[in-house]
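=== Discrete structure encoding ===
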Amino acid sequence: MDVYSQSSHAGGLVARGGGLHPPPEVLLNWPKPNYVDPEERGWAAPIVLLMFLGVTFLVYVARMWARIAISKNTGLDDILISLSMIPLFGLTIATVLGIRIYGYQWHSWDQTTETLVTSREIALAIELLYMISTSLIKVSILCFYRRITGRLTHQFVYWVYATIAFCVIYGVVFTFVILFTCTPIEGFWRYFDIAWRIQNKLVCRDEGAIIVACAAISSVQDFIICLLPVLLIWNLQISKRQKLALCGIFGMGLITCFCGLMRTYYATKLYYFTYDITWIAYYGWIWTNLEAQLAVICASAPSLKVFFNRYLTQYTSRDGYTGNLSRGNPPEVASKLASNAFVSKQSQFSSHKSQIRGGDATSSEEIPLDGIHVNHKLQISIEERDDSSYKSFESTKALTELPPSHQVWRDRIEWAESCRNVCAAFRPGSMGNPGIRSREGDIEAGRAI
């Protein structure tokens, strides 16, 4: 047996292990179709996907609010991530419909003539929406990398541009390849429609090879995008703790990489290791959707720091500040102190807020790596007097406190003497001024204040 025949035999073994064309012996072993009460998936996965979509949308809103309202520093990456949200919503809706209504909730042997068509329609929609949304998200992340580097390193910029070109070419090519898997295009979802196939000529390429290659290349791109910032951060002149923190933020994309690997695994299993395609594709569509949603969350993670610094830290510090004021003071006193101190804190903060702009940075909240951001914070703590300080305060108070109104000042010789000392202390030039000295004599004698 020559090499060609061996490779053909190996390919035949793989093809017989699964795919869209179950052999007769497999069809004979399938259970009898159950169109009344078939085994089906529940609502757990659709609910989880919709909840994830809600979280993803909130993260996106927080990101855009931080960029537009707080830092006023939007860029091309924000435009691309905004565009990606449109197909992402469509992807989630299509996935929910597919795994709950359009056929992927049942086994292949329980499919009706209607779901044999709708399952293929929704599959094509999911694949195309996935390609568009994830390509936009990846390019958005890479544009953000280019934005924060400035002119730090030309080598890193070249890597970013090369990866952008890779993602754009991949997205465009595979979008059209998937769309034109079958000629005519309608043949993709009419693939199992026997009546239509009899009346129309259909030519289809190797769908399994296309989808598996698409998923595998996407996973490779995810790993490249996650590793690029690590190479940049590790060469920065910052502490190891800061490096690890930044790597952790950008390393969140590894979760997306895991989802991409699971998508590749189920795509391979679907087309090469099982004929129950609708039952197994159920898991593949879930991982496909999670990959796209988590990509948006990871892409927005750096901007969330600005959002939380503005709102979460502000509320936390305000609550803690009021709590310190109320400790050891009566409620009414603590309330007045908190009110006055808050006003004082606000005015001092506004007068001391400073900013140093560098490069193209114009934001007071989010400064790229080529800028410096200086923050001044004020912390006030009011504590109770101890016994010694309280006694000192009482002795000082006795020196300057006026005598009771019912007593004659002339009889308060000790008060006059102390008042004279205080006046002399606060007016050191008074001893050389005759007018003032006579005034002091009157005070000492108790004739005037």
In short: The first strand starts at residue 182 and ends at 183.
